[in-house]
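Structure first, sequence second, as always.
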């Protein structure tokens, strides 16, 4: 297994994005995903024999805020510590850049996974909102 900081090709990334269910609500094209990923502060791509099996990225201003997004592992490779390794590598890159505040978007029910990696759940009454198109 090889962990890299290179942006995968859209032909590598799009199938894993579909297989993990991440595109069900967004319905993004391979080109839109390629653009989004290319604008990332940092990515971690995981390969097994030249096949992309895991991915995660950070969107950041490079100083104050960073948000971890799109952490995914191909279904047949889940449960082997790959997702944890991706998170640790992304957090390490943020810490090395001395970013002050690291956030992440987590799927509902994934809190336990992220808590063992040092993240805490935001209190229900804490500030923050989500914009939804009307």
């Amino acid at each position: 297994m090889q962990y890299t900081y290179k942006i995968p090709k859209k032909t590598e990334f799009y199938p894993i994005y579909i297989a993990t269910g991440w595109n069900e609500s967004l319905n993004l094209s391979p080109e839109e995903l390629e653009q989004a990923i290319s604008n990332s502060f940092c990515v971690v791509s995981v390969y097994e024999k030249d096949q992309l099996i895991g991915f995660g990225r950070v969107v950041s201003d490079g100083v104050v805020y960073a948000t971890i997004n799109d952490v995914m592992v191909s279904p047949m490779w889940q449960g082997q510590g790959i997702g944890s390794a991706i998170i640790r590598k992304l957090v390490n890159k943020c810490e090395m850049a001395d970013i002050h505040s690291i956030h992440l978007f987590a799927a509902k029910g994934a809190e336990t996974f992220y808590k063992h990696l040092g993240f805490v759940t935001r209190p229900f009454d804490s500030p923050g909102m989500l914009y939804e198109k009307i």
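Margin note: The chain has four helices and five strands.
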